[in-house]
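Hi everyone, sorry if this is the wrong subforum. Our group has a chain we'd like a structural model of before ordering constructs, and none of us has done structure prediction before. Sequence below.
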Amino acid sequence: LYTSLIESLTICARQRIRLHSIGIDTWGVDFAFVNEEGALIGLPYAYRDPQTIGKKEEFFEKVMSADELYGKTGIQHMDFNSIFQLYTLKQRKDFGLTHASRLLFMPDALSYLLTGRMVTEYTIASTSQLLNPETRKLDEKLLEVLGVSKSLFADMVEPGAKVGMLTEDLCEELQIESVPVIAVAGHDTASAVAAVPAANKNFAYLSSGTWSLMGIETDGPVVNEKTTHYNITNEGGVDGTIRLLKNITGMWIVEQCLKKWHKEGTDYTYPQMVELAQNARPFACFINPDDPGFTNPQDMPKAICEYCARTGQNAPQTHGEFIRAIFESLALKYREVLDVFRELSVNPIEKLHIIGGGSRNKLLNQFTSNAIGLPVVAGPSEASSIGNIMLQAKAAGVVSTLQEMRNVISVNVEPDYFSPADAEVWNEAYQKYISIIKK
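Answer:
Right subforum, don't worry. Here is the predicted structure as tokens:
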């Protein structure tokens, strides 16, 4: 990633593109270690690394209950959260953790390599399950039970803060002028949600990609019996907002099916994939996208067949049936989760904004509108990048508030609109879906 950043800066210099600033956003939870001399220690672990499998349950049994941890952080319990990664590394006496002077989350690590300055950006840190959502600071009790010093973390900064300037050495090497690096909303979903072209607060959002993240925007954390029961997460947003959301396994399942079929010698263009799904029999079977069996199987189509056998359903037979079953199940999952947010929201939810790469999937967008019974506004697809850019604009004084950012975006993007249809058919399918996933 760092090499690609340098290559991009080199291309800018070659094409005489003058940069005003740079901002970096990435996925959440993962981190790198830096030693006392300022060098990175080894390579970071990826969140799909199997090292944390089972560690969440062990932590709840030996260290702190699930309810107590949720009460402290308001974060959805997931195996790969930073807290469980650190718990695992501590048990293993990991060399990186043992010799670390600093822990830097991914966007902060890349910003450090560009500037030599270390910060902890708030939105990315909020994904770690180490922050108190009320104080917006690291929870010292959690660090204590982990055996991790608070000094391991750099000072917390808000989205829009200046990290530093490109280093002199880097500018000399690349023959470019130094520019500021801005701590945008470092978590890609936080940048993406900042790019929702909403005119008011009466909406829910779905950041659709490998992961689907559905939620609402609130003025403060919501930690109560309902959010505990439904395992809802409170992650940091822009301008003091909280992204009250739920992580859902998204297009990962389709991506892994396509990967398997590619190995078998079959490739599909996107239009071909949609055509296959459209021509397949509707509502033939259903899956729960969040079933543990779909986390990282070696053979995704086989995992789907095993799920169907386990729940008393006929498995898909053709590639089109697999794709349609996944799309329909995702749409019905979105309804299941949106119903929870309807209970939690103080504002009426009048539409669903779908952003991210998945917003280009018109078939799934229509299925989703049908399933939830609400209009869907799809786009922008490059929401994380647009939110990132607008936060750099905010840092430069071009806009001053989150709503101003959204107003600029809304007049510069042309979203697609989808209206609900076939309500009776989809309501019947939803009841069947619920009965299947309860098995």
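For your construct planning: The CA atoms of residues 206 and 298 lie 28 Å apart. The mean pLDDT is 96.
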